[in-house]
């Protein structure tokens, strides 16, 4: 019988934050396994459209429940009455992704680059701000909710879920980098189940039933991944392959951490940390109250008759207890006597001595806690790490060695250890001399001789120094990468200087000789033309107005060539007053037209030199491949001969080299 008895099923809607995929596996499982129907609910799972905000959908009454990010805290601060019911992802899957070919090797190199970052990604902006990259310095473009732009290189990086988009690039063998806010100390919750204050107030039982059934679904889904993958493909979506969905599951496991932390668990101190990060970046006022924002399943309405019933039962229990008290005392005395006798046996004593030797000489702190989280044993390593001697710690609770902000989290981990299994984690701890250290903990339940829970054995390792060294190594590595980039930049500058003419900024003759063979090889069936240019009577300028005026004439022609050539053209200063332009893909008549335009522009230019006004003309010779030559030297020679023919014909003109082969001439047309 469900919680609703014979009543009709209550219809409710859950607005997902994206299209159907394993990210929402728990809700599919709750539907398929009948958990919702057992709770008296008829649930509709609403797939999101790209760019849709689940918070707006729920606030507008188009759904009773939604899945949102930690940005829910920002909505709450803006007066939107959202209430977080449960945390599904203990760590957010949101990250910034860049392909290796973008040249982005660290997070600081995204500044000024083209980025696609979707809405509701405040944690990414907070991460970038903390890394010294303010939002105003970002070149943001609208998110397409795909990866085509990243693949094509029209954007340099984009926001992704590490459970999703990386699969396609990994399968294709494309190298990429992921930059997660966690690497910058920002560890937000991921997908969060939420509703509104008004719906919680008017339907508290529905909210609790939906929450519990959903969490049951998540436990089932993470324990039966292949079954849920088949369910998604058969019932919800075939957008992703089976391999993609299983990849998503594998990437989700360390984010949910359901083997260590109960699904749905949320720690108020963690939400406070998220609020502090937002406040640090100016997204929230400092010290904002979380009252009413976090759902407390313990604060359910209890009818008055329950209290009367419990009171009556308590009176009956007390009367029965007075009758059996004497029997219990006798039984306890007998049990204690039997225990003392067992402890006197030599074999047990030897076992205890062996255990004690290991316990006291272990390099890790070993601490035994009772059911109330009080210390019942404390080894020498614990004394060394935390500073307190054993005698001072016996019977002491967690509050002495755990900061107040972390106390609830540590107590929750201890409770999970009492439920059985190995529970690990990293948290801050206090020492006797007032320091705060970072420890890695492993907690395991110890059972007594009857198989009953007896204590929790906790092993602790001080990793404060190791973390400091790791941080120092990361900083040193970052500095090394910076130096390498600087050296690479200097090398590139030197390479550029080696192939440029220092006066005009055009490529030099050495670079022309290197590149011309490459261009001829790449041209294949495409034409390639070459223009050689010489400034007429240039020596007169140097002789009458000086070499500085001559330099100004050279740079004036260089500016004309730079501003009027195509991006694929290669303009060079061949030597002295001689220039060469390589035009890949240009037929002979096109090259001739370009040469004529340069000649006319230069002849009309009045150059204001420091020592007087100068006006000069130029002569040009044009040759093309393959009509005039099949190799660089021959092509340069043909253009040079045409240039000298122009000079001989009276200067200030363009002449095309003669073509001896009529077949080659027809190929140029």
Describe the protein.
This protein is of the alpha/beta class and 669 residues long. It has four domains: 11-90 and 189-280, Periplasmic binding protein-like II (D-Maltodextrin-Binding Protein, domain 2, 3-Layer(aba) Sandwich); 94-184, D-Maltodextrin-Binding Protein, domain 2; 362-462, Beta-Lactamase (2-Layer Sandwich); 507-668, Alpha-Beta Plaits (2-Layer Sandwich), CATH 3.30.70. The protein is built from 24 helices and 23 strands. The strands form five sheets. It has a six-stranded mixed β-sheet with strand order 16-18-19-17-22-23, sandwiched between helices. The chain has a five-stranded mixed β-sheet with strand order 2-1-3-10-4. A hairpin with a 5-residue loop joins strand 13 and strand 14 (436-447). Helix 1 (25-32) crosses helix 10 (225-236), helix 10 (225-236) packs across helix 11 and helix 20 crosses helix 21 (547-564). It is elongated. The relative contact order is 0.07.
CATH superfamily of the largest domain: Periplasmic binding protein-like II
CATH topology (fold) name of the largest domain: D-Maltodextrin-Binding Protein, domain 2
Q: Pairing-aware structural class of the strands and helices?
A: alpha/beta
Give the CATH class of the largest domain. Alpha Beta
Indicate the low-confidence ranges by residue numbers.
Answer: 1-6, 300-324, 344-355, 664-669
Biggest sheet character: 6 strands, mixed
| Helix content percent band | 40-55%
Strand order of the largest sheet: 16-18-19-17-22-23
% residues in beta strands: 15-25%
Number of domains: 4
């Amino acid at each position: 019988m469900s919680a609703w008895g014979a009543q009709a099923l209550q219809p409710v809607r859950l607005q997902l934050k994206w299209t159907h995929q394993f990210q929402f596996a728990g809700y599919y499982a709750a539907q398929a396994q009948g958990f919702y129907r057992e709770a008296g609910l008829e649930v509709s799972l609403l797939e999101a459209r790209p760019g849709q905000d689940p918070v707006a959908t729920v606030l507008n009454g188009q759904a009773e429940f939604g899945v949102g990010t930690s940005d829910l805290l920002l909505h709450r601060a803006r007066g939107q009455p959202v209430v977080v019911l449960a945390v599904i992802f203990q760590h957010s899957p949101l990250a910034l992704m860049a392909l290796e070919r973008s040249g982005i090797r660290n997070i600081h190199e995204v500044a000024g680059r083209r980025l696609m970052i979707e809405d509701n990604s405040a944690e990414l902006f907070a991460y970038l701000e903390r890394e010294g990259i303010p939002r105003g310095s970002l070149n943001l473009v609208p998110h397409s909710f795909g990866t085509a732009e990243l693949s094509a290189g029209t954007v340099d990086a984009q926001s992704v879920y590490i459970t999703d988009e990386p699969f396609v690039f990994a399968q294709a063998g494309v190298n990429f980098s992921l930059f997660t806010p966690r690497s910058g100390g920002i560890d937000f919750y991921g997908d969060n189940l939420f509703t509104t204050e008004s719906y919680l107030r008017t339907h508290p039982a529905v909210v609790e039933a939906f929450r519990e059934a959903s969490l049951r679904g998540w436990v089932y889904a993470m324990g039966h991944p292949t079954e849920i993958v088949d369910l998604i493909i058969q019932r919800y979506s075939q957008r992703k392959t089976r391999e993609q969905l299983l990849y998503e599951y594998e990437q989700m496991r360390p984010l949910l951490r359901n083997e260590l932390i109960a699904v749905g668990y949320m720690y108020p101190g963690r939400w406070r940390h998220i609020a502090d990060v937002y406040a640090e970046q100016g997204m929230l006022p400092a010290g904002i109250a979380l009252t009413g924002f976090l759902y407390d399943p313990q604060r359910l309405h209890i009818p008055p008759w329950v209290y009367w019933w419990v009171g009556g039962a308590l009176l009956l229990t007390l009367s029965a207890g007075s009758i059996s008290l004497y029997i219990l005392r006798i039984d306890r005395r007998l049990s204690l006597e039997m225990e003392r006798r067992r402890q006197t046996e030599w074999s047990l004593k030897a076992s205890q001595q062996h255990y004690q030797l290991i316990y006291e000489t272990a390099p890790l702190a070993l601490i035994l806690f009772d059911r109330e989280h009080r210390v019942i044993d404390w080894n020498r390593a614990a004394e060394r790490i935390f500073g307190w001697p054993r005698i001072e710690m016996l019977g002491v609770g967690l509050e002495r060695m755990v900061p107040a902000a972390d106390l609830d989290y540590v107590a929750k981990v201890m409770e999970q250890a009492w439920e059985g299994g190995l529970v690990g984690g990293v948290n801050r701890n206090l020492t006797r001399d007032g320091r705060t250290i970072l420890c890695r903990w492993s907690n395991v339940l110890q059972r007594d001789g009857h198989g009953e829970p007896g204590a929790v054995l906790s092993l602790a390792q001080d990793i404060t120094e190791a973390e400091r060294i790791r941080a120092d190594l990361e900083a040193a590595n970052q500095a090394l990468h910076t130096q390498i980039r600087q050296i690479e930049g200097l090398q590139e500058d030197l390479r550029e200087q080696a192939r440029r003419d220092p006066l005009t900024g055009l490529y030099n003759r050495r670079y022309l000789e290197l590149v011309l063979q490459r261009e001829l090889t790449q041209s294949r069936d495409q034409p390639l033309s070459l223009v050689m240019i010489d400034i007429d009577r240039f020596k007169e300028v140097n002789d009458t107005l000086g070499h500085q005026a001559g330099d100004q004439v050279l740079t004036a022609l260089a500016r004309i060539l730079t501003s009027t050539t195509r991006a694929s053209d290669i303009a060079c200063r061949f030597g002295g007053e001689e220039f060469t332009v390589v035009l890949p893909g240009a037929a002979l008549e096109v090259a001739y037209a370009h040469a004529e335009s340069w000649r006319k522009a230069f002849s009309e230019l009045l150059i204001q030199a420091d020592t007087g006004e100068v006006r000069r003309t130029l002569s040009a010779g044009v040759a093309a491949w393959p009509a005039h030559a099949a190799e660089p030297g021959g092509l340069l020679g043909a253009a040079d001969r045409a240039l000298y023919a122009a000079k001989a014909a009276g200067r200030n003109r363009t002449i095309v080299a003669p073509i001896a082969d009529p077949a080659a001439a027809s190929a140029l047309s």
